[in-house]
Amino acid sequence: MPGKSKRRTPVKVSDLRMDELLRPIGDIKSLHVILTLRCNYRCAFCFQPNFRDDLPEHIWREKLTPLYPGLENVVLHGGEPTLVPAFREFCELINGRNDRVRFSLFTNGYKFDGYWAALMAGRGRFVNFSLNACTPETYARVNRRDHYHAVLDNVRRFRALAGDVAVDFSFVITAENLHEVPGFLRLAADHGVDRVRYFFDLDLLPPDRDEIRRTLDATAEIRRELPDLEVWGLEVFEGRVFGTPVASRHLESHGCRRTFDNLYVGVNGDASFCNFLGWSPIGNLNDSSLEEIWNSPGALAQRRAQDRGEWEFCTNAYCGPTEEHPVIGARRDTAARTADDRVLVPVEALLSRPDDR
Ligand SMILES: C[S@@+](CC[C@H](N)C(=O)[O-])C[C@H]1O[C@@H](n2cnc3c(N)ncnc32)[C@H](O)[C@@H]1O
Ligand code: SF4
């Protein structure tokens, strides 16, 4: 189904020559952008540094335009994409140059109006509604807005239109909503959702490990009752909380080739291969061309490491070797090492950032 995570083949261990590591920008098939950090919500857990910055317009109106005709996927992150006219203009700019591209969207859903419903029903891959709760009370506490029913009304309207566009729900697990992790699956099933994503933040893990264990057991039971609902993120959450190995297929790094075809543009113009690699940008679009960035020394080092199946860049909350790695308890002011103690993991890389799963 469109919007479902692609089955990726495991990374082959090879050793590309330098000329093979250099890639044309035409290889970029997926573009992720944060056009603004502005938002109509102030979720208690939100990782944003502020709620005002915008991506300079020349970057998406000019710098990125050579990519638009060849893109297969555009993923809109924010800030809140439905709030800001620039997101509509950006989508229309791409639509005018590419009639095959599919859009995906992370949204709190409150302003998911007729425009967005029509765009996503016609050209969407997935719409992720960030709910984070399955009752109005908990919704108001964690999202700090009293819009639970209004958002679910928007979801129902869109579900009726969406056809084969995936409708996803997401939930950032914190101490305040842990008790609603199991019930969230039922809410999703009741709304015809295709996939539930559970995210977490290593800085905001619920402190009571016994309660987490009971919650995960209760959630596993409900999962068994809902075999058609795709659920992402609980295995990696469990592994990171309890310091246990996570099977490769549950990690974002499984078969990942993003250094070959993916570009993620942060609100300050930093370009990286994906949101998890935001700590190690391959360049900045304010002062470099796309070609310079895509084949910068940093880009080549990351591409080579990925091609070899090495982990010095791709170790974070959702990626990395399958073995246990002691990210638990990592804080912004500390560093952590992988299990084999060879690779120093920059602590920024340990911060949780949702992607296009
Ligand atoms: C920053 S939001 C931007 C898009 C939109 N405003 C939304 O909420 O969906 C993108 C995603 O990040 C998630 N998120 C926010 N803060 C987080 C955190 N501290 N840890 C993990 N995920 C987080 C949100 O729940 C949402 O699914
Ligand atoms: S709606 Fe999204 S961007 Fe806005 S505060 Fe919540 S998580 Fe952050």
From TrEMBL:
Keywords, in A-Z order: Iron, Iron-sulfur, Metal-binding, S-adenosyl-L-methionine
Domain Radical SAM core: 25-230
CDD domains associated with the record: Radical_SAM (cd01335), SPASM (cd21109)
Entries under SUPFAM superfamilies matching the protein: Radical SAM enzymes
NAD recorded as keyword: no
A Pfam family matched in the record: SPASM
KW S-adenosyl-L-methionine (keyword) present: yes
Signal sequence coordinates: none
PROSITE patterns: RADICAL_SAM
Top-level taxon of origin: Bacteria
Gene3D superfamilies, per the entry: Aldolase class I
Protein name per its UniProtKB record: Radical SAM core domain-containing protein
